[in-house]
Amino acid sequence: MDLNDTPEQVRYRAKVRAWLDEHSDEAPAEQGDEEAAQIAARRAWQGRLAAAGLAGVTWPVELGGQGLGPIEHVIVGQEIIRAGVPNILDVIGVGMLGPTIIAHGSDEQKGRYLGPMLHGDEVWCQLFSEPAAGSDLAAVQARAVPQDDGSWRLSGQKVWTTNAHFAAHGLLLARTDADVPKHKGLTMFIVPMDAEGVTIRGLRQISGEAEFNEVFFDDVRLGAEAVVGGVGNGWGTALTTLMFERLTIGLGSESLGYKAERYAAAIATDEHARLDPEVRRRLGELSVELLAVKFTGYRVLSALAQGQIPGPEAGLAKVTTVRSAIDAGDLIADVLGPDALDQDSEWAYMISFLPGLKSAGGTEEILRNTIGERVLGLPPEPRLDKGIPFSELRAKERAGVSAR
Amino acid sequence: MNLELTDEQSFLRDAARDALSRVKTVAAARDALEDPAARPDLWPTAREAGWAGLLVSEAGGGAGLSAFDAMLVMTEAGRVLAGVELLGHLPASALLDAAGDERVGAVAEGELRACFVPARPPGDLDERWTAEPPSGSVRVAAPVLSEDGRLSGKVAWVPDAPGADVYVVVATGADGAPVAVAVEAVDATAEDATRYDATRSLGHVSFDGAACSVLERIGAEDLRRAWFLAQALLAAESLGAVETALASSVSYAKERFTFGRAIGSYQAVKHSLVEVLRLRENTYALMLYAGWAYEDKPGEFALAASAARSSGGHALDYASRAMISVHGGIGATWEHDAPLFFRRAQLSRRLLGGLGDATDRVAGELLSTA
Predict the structure, then answer these.
(1) Is A253 in CB contact (< 8 Å) with chain B?
(2) Mean pLDDT of B320-333
(3) How confident is the model over A208-212, as a mean pLDDT?
(4) Complex prediction ipTM
(5) Close Cβ partners of A267 (under 8 Å, ≥ 6 residues apart)
(6) Contact B291 A284 (CB under 8 A)
(7) Contact at 8 Å (CB) between B36 and B84?
(8) How many Å apart are CA B354 and CA A282, to the nearest integer?
(9) What secondary structure letter does DSSP report for A312?
(10) What do you get for the CA distance between the two ends of chain A, in Å?
């Protein structure tokens, strides 16, 4: 057991730090007043990081990456936080969608899309979730219908799409065959976001900000070359993306700022609260959980570095992080009073954002089902959708409701 | 970074599991509730396995292993509710070793069983070194070393005190500064205070102007470290009991059917067992933190060990209750193992300052460095 950097890692960290020390004053702010200018600046900064080898650290060298391991990836992330500069803008593209294209895409797709993605020239978005397909992602209804000439016509709606309003492309999961069971009739596509028939609408959340979008597709034409990973293989391709999503969240939790030390600092300024046994108990309990998550992250990283893929139990870290951060927001607002909920407060956004995060990437309840079944080997939930063609499912669901 | 166990650590863990499997410790934990003589003496097992000298340097005659290695052995003991007197012995042995005490060779070999008589170090709100009271919530002053070198005071609920050969006591001198002293068993009184969990040996230890030897090289920082080492060892022991409780509950949830379904297929049961797993994973991660901090980040050891204790205690509390619930009415009967794990949880959370104090220490450490 060893948590310390190896001599090679010490050297790598020093190299990363030296570059950041030299260039950190050229970095844009994390947030800006005017969105378009801010995004342009963040994209340019991503290009700088990529050119310096600080983006796509784990991507293969021949595809523009550094060909290094997950530990080097985390070292870069830690050093970027330390330098107080923004990380890359397109975490979803570089962290999740790019690796999916690397795993399943054609040589033409890799040659065309990966370079501009890595350098921030083209931002990507993930078009998976729908109003009626979230935790049960394989229930997607967006339809892509094959045409005689090999092209496709796409119609449907996606939701919770981060960055869609300035993305150049999206990776989209669509149903291409409704007459087979739901996991089988899916196909993954690359969709140009400026194609005719694509409508993007901002989706405001509790905080008032619109970080997500709804995206509508009305008879959008896609070429045969838009398919990623083969027709009918969409579910397997999506699982690759979801695995990288778990890793991105698991390895990036420190950068979310959900840290025990930060919350303690907010309490410590209140001379009365820091002596209050009830405040201390609540702070202690949530801090224990957040410290555990931090070292669980190191366990995941260590397993990755030994060439193992972390199992579904890594999802427990997300459950713990979100719950503890919710507890922290409650505690801090209890201590600071209504001021904590003020628009300008450091905490209002977090407090408003977290209830929704509970459902992001699968609800807590679904995660507990998955982990109970796949890690503890408990018997599965009764399922009514197994082996049934997707086209018959809705009728069956309706019949199930009326039979009650 | 590599958080996998080394081959040596895997061997240590497997050997411990094997050595403890030769005695029916869980059944003995039940029998000893009615007949204290049924409690097996596992000290010969500990000596044979070399656990007595785990934390004693090689120069001192021990194995010179790490705190994390000691935690691995504690986890195995906790897994089968084995009453091995390591919680008292290991912190004491580390102090005797650091002090260069002449008894350390015999202690490392296990010929002498040592017992740590702890005092809670000052925190951000309490500057005193305090000991457990026999009852109630008001902590008492640690034993006092008089100017003529005599020790007086009483410490309640000391793990593994009955039958120990030498006590390593955290006391305060006439100036209030902490000092470590060693007291031979003949110079102390250890009233057996074992109760509720028959495999957890406890004693109320009294010193009445006792002859003692001062461990000159031991300072306040060493004594803080010993207290938090005990916290980390208790956390590791709880982890083992959690793992047994979880395995037993999961196994039953697959076998027991109601309304035509295995009860483990119901979300209410499944989610509760996943909660045990979540708390187990958290505790193991914090055990790694505590082990790392003990060696490489001494300034964070109080935080890490307290967090591990808090997490492990809470995990065992939850796991033992879930074990009873999942087993239904049978889980609350004398014949079942679940009550033994419940007894372990109930008593453990009230030892060594208690679970609430460990959680408060986490807050205190974070607030005072914020």
Answers:
(1) no
(2) 97
(3) 85
(4) 0.97
(5) A273, A274, A279, A283, A331, A332, A335, B367, B370
(6) no
(7) no
(8) 16
(9) G
(10) 56
DSSP lists the bridge partners of residue A227 as A189
Q: In sequence order, what are the residues at sequence separation of 6 or more whose Cβ sits closer than 8 angstroms to the Cβ of residue B343?
A: B196, B197
State the average pLDDT over residues B205-210: 98
Q: Distance of alpha carbon A86 from its chain centroid, rounded? A: 17
Using CA atoms, how far residue B229 sits from B13, B168, B304, in Å, is 19, 14, 10
B363, with CB counted inside 10 A (0-12, 13-18, 19+), is: buried
Any A CB within 8 A of B294 CB: no
Neighbours of A210 (CB within 10 A): 12
d(CA A394, CA B83): 59
Distance (Å, whole) CA B144 – CA B169: 10
The residue type of B11 is: F
Is residue A305 predicted with pLDDT exceeding 90? no
Taking chain B, what is the end-to-end CA distance rounded to the nearest angstrom? 27
Q: State the Cα–Cα distance between residues A310 and A318, nearest whole angstrom.
A: 14
The amino acid sitting at A403 is A
All residues of chain B having their beta carbon less than 8 Å from the beta carbon of residue A381 are 265, 267
pTM as predicted: 0.95
Distance CA B199, CA B138 (A): 27
Burial B113-152 (b: 16+ CB within 10 A, else e): bbbbbbbbbebbeeebbbbbeeeeeebbebbbbeeeebbe
pLDDT the model gives residue A401: 67
d(CA B120, CA B228): 9
- For residue A358, name the pLDDT band (cuts at 50, 70, 90): confident
A39 vs B53: CA distance, rounded Å = 61
Ranges of beta strands (E only) in A45-197 are 124-127, 143-146, 152-158, 169-175, 186-192
Q: Give the chain A residue whose CA is nearest to the CA of B281.
A: A296
Per-residue confidence band for A250, with pLDDT thresholds at 50, 70 and 90: low
Distance CA B190, CA B185 (A): 8
What is the distance between the alpha carbons of residues A245 and A93, in angstroms, rounded to a whole number? 10
Spatial separation of the C-alpha atoms in residues B120 and B353, rounded to whole Å: 7
* Type of residue numbered A217: F
Residue A300: what pLDDT?
A: 86
Of the candidates A147, A284, A308, A338, the one whose C-alpha atom is nearest the C-alpha of residue A226 is A147
Q: pLDDT digits over A58-78, tens only?
A: 999 999 999 999 889 989 999
Round to whole Å and give the CA distance between A304 and A73: 11
Contact between A140 and A153 (Cβ < 8 Å): no
Locate A283 and state its tokens: 């702070």
* Residue numbers of A between 255 and 314 with CB closer than 8 Å to B: 260-261, 264-265, 267-268, 274-275, 277, 279-281, 283-285, 287-289, 291-296, 298-299, 301-303, 305-306, 313
Do B278 and A3 make contact, defined as CB atoms within 8 angstroms?
no
Cβ–Cβ of A379/B261 closer than 8 Å? yes
Using alpha carbons only, what angle is made at residue B284 by residues B33 and B116, rounded to the nearest 5 degrees? 55
Q: Provide the 8-state DSSP code for A307.
A: T
Minimum distance, in Å, between the CA of residue B370 and any CA atom of chain A:
5
Cα B214 from Cα A252, distance rounded (Å): 50
**Helices A315-336 & A277-305 angle (0-180, nearest 10):** 150
